Amino acid sequence: MDTAIGTQKHVPEYLLKHSHDADAAMKAFEGIEGQPVVLTEAENKRLLRKIDMHLMPILCVVYGLNYLDKTTLSYASIMGLKLPPSADKNHSGIGISGSEYSWLGSMFYFGYLAWEYPTNRLLQRLPLGKYSAFNIIMWGLVLSCFAATENYGGAIAIRFFLGVFEAAVTPGFALFTSQWYTKKEQGTRTGIWFSFNGFAQIFGGLVAYGIAVGCRKYGTSLEPWKIVFLVTGLITSSIGVIFLWAVPDNQLNCRWLSKEDRLLAIERIRINNQGVGNKHFKWYQLKEALLDPLSWAFLLYALIADIPNGGLSNFFSQLIVGFGYTPEQSLLYGTPGGAVEVVALIACGWAGDRYGHRILISMSGLCTAILGMILIVALPLSNNKGRLAGYYLTQASPTPFVALLSLISSNVAGYTKKTTVAAMYLIGYCAGNIIGPQTFRAKDAPRYVPGEITIICCWGICLGILLFIYLYCVWQNKKKASIRAEPEYVKLENQEWLDLTDKENPEFVYTL
């Protein structure tokens, strides 16, 4: 363990004087000053396997449900939700127009947007594992209530509160990733749990198709779209209870690690220069986040990139119907798009960590998606197979979004700053997803050409933002290297656990 004592030149003085401002990881090392904590390569691999085995499955399943639950509306839209109320239970909906359906798609993100910053503050202030579990259970229950709604007003309210409770999952999982994994491991892990959006698309399409076919053949006492909401909602709440038991708040209270392994699990992430959490709100870190060009580049990317996401995630079933397929076929034919997303995310996450260029490699997925959307726009309506293949290619588009999400774990230090930047990123995500469904207007069906051209333009702008982020991080790393090369610079003891921001810590190196 590196314990060199250094000068205060590059570190705020109050951080050295007030131990309560340090990271929670500092508590684990109290009383063992001067005693080396040795983490061998074999122990590191053993710990990583154990952490992966206990954390990754539950993170993956929950994140898949996070995507499935907010896109269940798309399946329900072609299973009778939009039909007017009727005495025939198999053909009865809540009677909504095309514009009302677009607002239902957007309303989820109004709830998400309204609660995003407060939930990030609660993620910092409250026990991370328990607060996350509470939100998972609640959003499952809220989704189940959709089966009881009888009008547009009720549907709007449910979509809003679904957004409120789902607002915690993405920033919370980014915190879990930075808390348990080293920088070189974070891109792959973030890609893996985010890729379960694709698995959820496959699973959701198959489940919705099975329900639709079963109800058509055998009949049911409940409308098919109601069954979809009940099944997905109750599964989510059940998984939330498991999450509450399985996922700790941090290494310090992890039930599946021994006391010695808890210390080693913290030691293995020392290299991140970030720690495991700090419950004290620090105004200077909030100010730094708001003045950091990187924070605004993240927000701008999320805003522009999620205009296409908001349109495609809510209209993909109707888009496939527009290619010339039946509603039942669209449920089934949408599933390969999930497989494309899974492969793209895992491949780009692994390659980014392996070759050290997470941002540049992620851009390949966005270029693939642009090609896919060009095929949808350019090919004639009669070429349904070619346009469907184009849709599949668009599902590689999340690779840069996930890369930047992993960079919030890797490249933003200081717990208040990290939660603030995560909130900014997801506020941009919400705003983009609110705008997105409005670009797909009912009068443009079945081609939706204006919405599709908007998507191509947005993705082109995003490539420029990604290039800026890459070059900015390269520049910052050169500045920090020059500081560390100064003769008077000496690293502080336990500097990694002082809850320093990435800007003020000379030892911090930005991942590219």
Quick tags:
single chain; 512 residues; mainly alpha; Growth Hormone, Chain: A; 19 helices; 0% strand; globular
Helix content: 55-70%
Predict the CATH topology.
Growth Hormone, Chain: A
Structural class: mainly alpha
Largest sheet: none
- Quick one: CATH class? Mainly Alpha
Distance between the termini: 26 Å
State the domain count.
1
Radius of gyration: 24 Å
Can you tell me the residue ranges where pLDDT is under 50 for at least 5 consecutive residues?
1-12, 14-19
CATH architecture: Up-down Bundle
- Indicate the mean pLDDT: 84
- The amount of beta strand, in percent, is under 5%
The CATH homologous superfamily name equals MFS general substrate transporter like domains
Strand element count: 0
How many alpha or pi helices? 19
Secondary-structure element string = HHHHHHHHHHHHHHHHHHH
What sort of overall outline do the alpha carbons produce when their principal axes are compared?
A: globular
Family: Belongs to the major facilitator superfamily. Allantoate permease family.
Subcellular location: Membrane
Transmembrane segments: 55-81, 101-119, 131-149, 155-178, 190-212, 227-247, 289-311, 331-352, 359-382, 388-408, 420-441, 453-475
Protein name: Membrane transporter
